Amino acid sequence: xxxxxxxxxxxxxxxxxxxxxxxLVFPKKVKHNYSFFPKLSILIPAHNEEKMIEKCVxxxxxxxxxxxxxxxxxxxxxxxxxxxxxxxxxKTIPNLKLLNLNHIxxxxxLNKGIKVAKNDVIVTVDADSIIEKNxxxxxxxxxxxxxxxxVTGVIRAIRNKNPLTWFQDFEYVLxxxxxxxxxxxxxxxxxxxxxxxxxxxxxxxxxxxxDTLTEDYDIALSLKKAGYQTITILSALLYTEVPQNxxxxxxxxxxxxxxxxxxxxxxxxxxxxxxxxxxxxFSIPTQVFWYVYSLLYLPVTFYTMFGGYFQYFxxxxxxxxxxxIKYFFSWFSLYGMAEMIYKLLLGYLSINLMxxxxxxxxxxxxxxxxxxxxxxxxxxxxxxxYFFYFPYALLILSVLGSSFLYELLTRRPxxxxxxTE
Length: 421
Known about the structure:
about 425 residues; 2 domains; 8 strands; single chain; alpha/beta; 16 helices
């Protein structure tokens, strides 16, 4: 049974990565002529962001741009010193404005901001983030196309001494890469954290909705339904604060899972219609893949890992030893895969169907990941992160799988888009 399940798991992974690699590598890249610089209204929804709001605002005010911008902080019921920090900044940044609101949620706050924004292009930036110097110049270029309603860039984590931020950064790049691949299939479905919109497109789509926990996903599909394209580009970068502990990561991913399936249910008729195009046969399947895959992969992985530990060590009375440490080091790092390939090449392991599938799946994932990092300037420390990425991936898959099951098996009350800090 486990062997059959393993064959299914790695065969599915091969099909998944064949699709991603094929789309990432072969379709031609869209070029922009950098002649489109509309006036911008930049909206920063903020709830209790006293620690990051100054860095966020300054990164925007100091960014390179060739036209007028207005910056509007949407102070959404903050109980800390967010307002005080912004008012101090307003003394030196004349194009900075403050809109104080009750705690009405991110989606509603953005809608309020759109109403007071004076320009026809809206940029949304999360308050716990900073943008790169040329990010605005890059982000708006695709909006020169008449049918493009929304554009987003690459979202990366702000790294610090906490290793969890390193692994989240790697994961965020993979997520941005997936959105970029979906864009090449005309099926980008998420506009997270840092996005530019035509105001008329947002209004035509009905604005941001507060009836899901993932307004960035909801607005992208609403724009699609309204007849607009949404795009991810790799040249506009934003760095955002991420959870600093496991509890924060788990809480965040549960919220994302709930929001994901809320949006899918909400837009299901559109998703399965002819109008959705590649969304129904590429974007949604490759998004939901990891939820379903986790339910198959985790039992196989844990059974094989701990079954081997029992067979080779515990059954012989060995709990901890240098061999046990090496065994788990092989599981939790790329050393194990390198060792497997080495043994296959030298004939120490037989080349059977299962081993061939495992190596092929790993090779495809490596090609995909390295292709993304090559486009985003791979650094030597990122190789080390990738080398030890497996335990973090197991954590994320465990959260995805368990929260997915919970969503399937329970009926939960309707959730609204409110901060809970």
